[in-house]
Design brief:
Layout (H helix, E strand, L loop, with lengths): L1 H4 L22 H17 L5 E3 L12 H7 L6 H19 L4 E5 L8 H6 L7 E5 L7 H14 L4 E8 L11 H17 L5 E8 L13 H17 L4 H11 L20 H24 L1 H6 L2 H6 L4 H30 L4 H11 L1 H18 L17
Parallel strand pairs: 1-2, 2-3, 3-4, 4-5
Helix pairs in contact: 2-4, 6-7, 7-8, 8-9, 10-13, 10-15, 13-14, 13-15
Length: 394
């Protein structure tokens, strides 16, 4: 809810005044806000068979002042507080759109006792989505959880995996093997849970961990992972023929991350972005680190100590400057190519953010070194001088 509750005009609807992620369930205006949002979504999707109403990770629920007062009354508890709000939202969906089934993330339901969940009436209104994005699922635990939901009165369940995201808030490249393992284990869960309950699997593809976090993997970067996960689900498992089919369809020779760095490595739409992002992620920072932190001339004759004082042996300028200029030219050219490719797909603010987070810091380090080098060298012409003892022949 951060994208709504961050605004001053709606900040009074926060559960905890300081945090914009959770809606207060006590304000009548809160439910009115959710109803308005539902109305907008359904207006754009009038034939929707399902509507996901969220309810994921409702941090700080019960910690607002109104909730504290409510919890002190009678048999009230946080589970009841959560379920009553879910029931109110789901009931509105069904009243306004009788052919649309509300879905909810299940994490707020997992620890609620079966009798309380059954008595709430929620199992007759919504279908829970069991989410887990890890590479090592507790398959037996998931089967037990599905059985619990069945006994509580839920007639249908869904699973949720991830084909990108979920492996790091600032992750730039998608670890395909992690996501493939996740899907293969969900297939095992599907085979071991109550028959006919599991309706399908939702492949989530994260763009941010929350409204305030940085961008994680861009969609073009995650397409190979999406393709192999979808094909493996459709075929009921991963095998060499599935891998070959995906590689042929995407026009790639391999699903190895390192093989994506060549712009000729794939032919699917967005593959140019994948190639350029791969080069940046695997090589940009490491190449700049190698020059600034491990090059013998920089570390030996133009260290931080020297740079602060603008001191350098004139001969060392001739060793260092060409390397900096060459590296800066290489990555500046690639930055321009990547910017142009991104602008064909993303809005300007997303392009600006990704470059500022992932490209500009390294380029700024190079430009800073070049600036310090120029100031240390001074305006005077460089004169021939004896070569210092570098351990090499002059």
């Amino acid at each position: 809810m951060e994208f709504v509750l961050k605004h001053d005009a709606l900040a009074h609807l926060r559960e905890v005044a300081l945090f914009p992620n959770t809606l207060s369930p006590h304000e009548a205006e809160s439910l009115a806000l959710v109803r308005t949002m539902i109305g907008q979504v359904m207006e754009l999707h009038p034939g929707a068979r399902w509507l996901h109403i969220g309810c994921d990770e409702v941090y700080y629920l019960g910690e607002g002042e109104a909730s504290r007062q409510w919890l002190r009354q009678g048999q009230n508890n946080k589970a009841k507080l959560c379920l009553s709000h879910v029931k109110a939202v789901a009931s509105h969906v069904l009243a306004q759109h009788p052919t649309t089934t509300p879905l909810v993330w299940d994490d707020m339901l997992r620890a609620i006792p079966e009798d309380q969940l059954s008595a709430s009436g929620v199992p007759q209104l919504v279908e829970p989505v069991l989410w887990d994005y890890g590479a090592d699922l507790d398959i037996h635990g998931k089967a037990l959880l599905m059985e619990k939901y069945r006994e509580c009165g839920f007639s249908r369940l869904w699973a949720a995996s991830a084909f990108k995201g979920a492996t790091g808030a600032s992750q730039a490249l998608t670890p395909i093997e992690h996501h493939l393992r996740n899907h293969m284990q969900w297939l095992q869960v599907a085979g071991g849970g109550p028959a006919d309950m599991l309706q399908g699997i939702i492949l989530t593809g994260w763009q941010r961990y929350d409204h305030f976090s940085v961008l994680c993997e861009l969609l073009p970067v995650g397409i190979p992972s999406l393709a192999i996960c979808l094909q493996s689900l459709l075929r009921g498992g991963f095998a060499e023929d599935v891998k070959a089919r995906v590689e042929d369809f995407l026009g790639i020779s391999s699903l190895e991350i390192t093989d994506f760095a060549s712009e000729e490595a794939a032919s699917f739409p967005g593959s140019d972005i994948l190639a350029l992002v791969t080069q940046v992620s695997l090589q940009l920072r490491s190449s700049v680190d190698a020059l600034l932190e491990r090059d013998r001339y920089v570390t030996g004759w133009f260290s931080h100590y020297h740079r602060r004082r603008r001191l350098i042996h004139p001969v060392m300028v001739q060793h260092i400057r060409p390397q900096v200029l060459s590296l800066l030219a290489r990555w500046s050219t690639l930055e321009q190519e990547l910017q142009a490719a991104l602008q064909r797909v993303f809005y300007p603010d997303a392009v600006e953010e990704w470059l500022e987070e992932n490209v500009h810091p390294s380029l700024q380090r190079l430009r800073g070194l070049l600036q310090d080098l120029s100031e240390a060298a001074g305006p005077q012409p460089l004169l021939a001088s004896p070569c210092p003892d570098t351990g090499q022949e002059p």
